[in-house]
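Worked problem 6 (solution included).
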Amino acid sequence: MNPHIVAIFGGAVSGAEAAHQLAQRGIRSIVFEQNALPYGKIEDGLPKWHAKLRDKEEANISEKLSNPLVTFVPMVRLGQELDFQDVANNWGFSAVFLATGAWRDRPLGIEGIDGYVGKGLYYQNPFINWYNHYHEPGFSGEKNEVADGALVVGGGLASIDVAKALMMETVQKALAERGIATNMFDLERGIGKVLETHGLTLAGLGLKGCTLVYRRRVKDMPLFPGETDTPEKLAKAETVREKVLLNAQSKFLFNMLPCRVPVDKIVENGRLAGLVLRETRYDGGRLIEVPGTEGEFRSPLVISSIGSVPEPVPGIPMKGQTFEVESDQCCRLKGFDHVFAVGNAVTGRGNIKESMEHGKTIAEAIAEHYLTDPEGRVSGQFRGQENKISENVAALIAQIAQLKPPSPEQAAVIFQKTARLHERSGYGGDYRAWIAAHLPARLEQLLGLEGH
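Solution. The predicted structure is:
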């Protein structure tokens, strides 16, 4: 057996693919996961209307993590239950991979605004996490409020998903008040179609709809992964971006406010009551804010969806908002010869362009048909991420071969410590049984739509 043992933090797409590539080469790995389930943003960040895709991708991860050369360790958070410096320097691993993803929302950037989280302000990651799970019997997470007329600050595909979720929640509630029963899966096919069936409009329901606020023009939105290095390619990309946004608005009835940037908060009675927005424009190709154009935009709810970055971990060097790596050294963490960052922990991005660079032609086709084939777009994103990790790990194998493997005594200690972590979490070593016991109730099951 190959003597090397690799620690992997994070069990989702990147971590599972890294473990799979190592196992293919006979290298054992121990995958430490902060949650009970290893699925990361597939479970908590991919909106729950992607039910079939979610199940398919989670099965893909489970197939990789159930390999005999992979040891799964759930409910262990780096920086809390485990000290990074201790694991990296004292446990004896041949290498440590950081595949912890990008879970922390970028700050909205208005002084003091984070004091209103839960009081008129939410960030995208916890909001979608709540949205995905609040239907579960016995749900004990923090309750989120949904209100008509919300402002969504963002501009990427994730911000469109937030707007979709808000629109479906508010429309479903308004229809229920009229005695009309519907569900998320019906509305996800098109809110306009559902309302038309009942002879209703958004205004007829007394709703204004949420508004997506973006600092640039619609044609600048990061909705298309194609090249823009020629005037022709740029024109095509801009056309597709506008088409994607228009299609999304026509299907889900949200509003769009481009060329605005939040510069201040509106507070009333201890709650966030809206934002002060300033206009932007291009000056010589550079985006600038226009002084004197500030206006108040009152809203009962603001959701910030301006991107995700890795969560800081004590002992891990940071450069800005991402892990600091030596980019010419296989993403080696600065100051360590055997610690490597992989996946979104490196870039701090989860966007389509970063994740799908291994299949640009396919990615472009998927982006153009975002609303007619959203599952394909998301699935392609995961495949692109897997391909990138596969290439990264292939390069890292050469690095690992030069590193000292743990001695038999060190290997025994590694697995003894792992066994103690298993005992603490209640994990008995049967991966499939653990997953089955911790998989939450699905909305489609509760609605009797398992074949949806």
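Discussion: Residues 141 and 391 are 38 Å apart (CA to CA).
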